[in-house]
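Entry type: protein chain
Record version: 2
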Amino acid sequence: DRRGVAAGIVHIGVGGFSRSHQAMYLDRLMEAGAATEWGICGVGLRAEDRRMKEVLTAQDCLYTLLVKHRDGRVQPRVIGSLVEYLWGQDDLEAVAEKLAGPAIRIVSLTITEDGYGLHPGTGSVDVRRGSAAGRFPSGLSGTAPGVVAEGLRRRRGRGLAPFTVVSCDNLR
């Protein structure tokens, strides 16, 4: 019963890794009656993420994870910790407002190296570079770093504590 689950995490770049690890662990906690305030709002920022939005929305953000055990058994498990999915190409403002909301305490990412908008000359992250899903009035881009910076900017303006940012990517 997911009626009592609220998003406390925004995960940018919902793919196989986040759905089979982070979401599964949270689902297990929720099944045990804990962590209902740690549901996940998935976010996609790339045009390619449209398909993920369509599929997850059609399934009420539920999906089946197949867990293969050491003895070869395969166990299907319906995962319910993902409670919402936003696509930045559709509504970048909704993504920024979600991050700026007081319930969000963690923003996690699995976006690979290309998603960080690294400056080619310096290798540093430039939150104004790129146009993944447009720009905010603040001048920040719709890339993952730009969206995170915009969410933090809005929270500061509202007197809210910042969220924790957790990159799940294996970047150097």
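Comment: The chain has five helices and seven strands.
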